[in-house]
Amino acid sequence: MTSPRWWTMRPAHNLKPATYRCPLCGGFVPALSDHVLIAPEGDTSRRRHAHTACVRAAHQAGRLPTKDEWRATQPRQPGLLARLFRRAG
């Protein structure tokens, strides 16, 4: 399986007494604590619960880019007018 190109991240509030394991550090995310949900390429079926500090550190290190950050690194396609004039010329 290839690694995700970008991640969605949003704050989460655990309202039920469930404990999750942080995929970034391997530690437990305590029940009823504030944390972050991360999902690779917006795929909510693969979302994971993580510590806020772990997500912040991974994001600053460049391991969890957002969609906008990933898109900014991609080559831009010529605009519609440029493509039309290229064909006409």
Account of the protein in words:
The protein has 89 residues and is α+β, with helices and mostly antiparallel strands. It has a single domain (7-88), classed as first zn-finger domain of poly(adp-ribose) polymerase-1, CATH 3.30.1740. The chain is built from 3 helices and 5 strands. The protein has helices at 52-60, 67-72, 80-88; strands at residues 7-13, 20-21, 28-29, 34-40, 48-50. A 3-stranded antiparallel β-sheet has the order 1-4-5. Strands 2-3 form a two-stranded antiparallel sheet. The relative contact order is 0.20.
Instruction: Tell me, rounded to a whole number, the average pLDDT.
Output: 89
CATH architecture, by name, is 2-Layer Sandwich
Termini gap: 43 Å
The helix-strand sequence is EEEEEHHH
Per the CATH scheme, the topology name is first zn-finger domain of poly(adp-ribose) polymerase-1
Strand content: 15-25%
Major beta sheet, strand line-up: 1-4-5
Number of helices: 3
Class from secondary-structure proportions:
alpha+beta
CATH class: Alpha Beta
Biggest sheet record: 3 strands, antiparallel
Helical residues, percent: 25-40%
> How many E strands?
5
Shape: elongated
Query: What's the alpha carbon Rg, rounded to whole Å?
Result: 18 Å
Count of spatially separate domains: 1
- The poorly predicted ranges are none
Task: Map the helices and strands.
Elements: E1 7-13, E2 20-21, E3 28-29, E4 34-40, E5 48-50, H1 52-60, H2 67-72, H3 80-88
Antiparallel strand pairs: 1-4, 2-3, 4-5
